[in-house]
Amino acid sequence: METPNPVRQLRLVVEAEDYDAALTFYRDVLGLPEQESYQGDGDARVTILDAGRATLELSNPAQVRMIDRVEADGQPSLKVRVAFEVDDATARTQQAVAGGAELVAEPRETPWRSLNSRLNGPAGLQLTLFQELDELR
Asked: Can you tell me the distance from the alpha carbon of 41 to that of 10, in angstroms, rounded to the nearest whole number?
């Protein structure tokens, strides 16, 4: 009998100074569906967006430097970088830039057979958009 995973969901909580711009970007530009939203006293607002399946990728400093070389011509990534798997990394990168993200690196094929781009998005998040080029086994 398989033991159920004790963690049911990974939720990344981000404080966004410009809440409306961040919401527009992540919900409308990247296309993350809105699951829930709440308002409270003092203009308190939160929106929970569905980002699909979540994983936590832990990398040591050598791995991060290697990814930075491959993905962004050696430009160092921030301590936390959010990676979104998309169907078309090139089109989604163009949409993200048009929607307000700053392009760090154009999409490029990686040695692990994905097409990755790097962007700086709203709310201080560094983003990787990646498209798997082979089916995961």
From this structure: 27
- What is the topology classification, in CATH, of domain 19-132? 2,3-Dihydroxybiphenyl 1,2-Dioxygenase; domain 1 (3.10.180)
The whole-angstrom separation of Cα 31 and Cα 37 is 16
Please state, in angstroms and rounded to a whole number, the distance separating the CA atoms of residues 119 and 109. Answer: 16
Secondary structure of 35-77 in HEC code, one letter for each residue: EEEEEEHHHEEEEEECCCCCCCCCCCHHHHHHHHHHHHCCCCC
- Name the residue type at position 9: Q
Residues 6+ apart with CB under 8 A from 47: 23, 27, 34, 36, 37
**What pLDDT digit, counting tens, does each position of 65-111 carry?**
999 999 999 999 999 999 999 999 999 999 999 999 999 999 999 99
In the chain, DSSP finds a helix count (H) and a strand count (E) of: 3, 6
Answer whether residue 2 shows pLDDT above 90: no
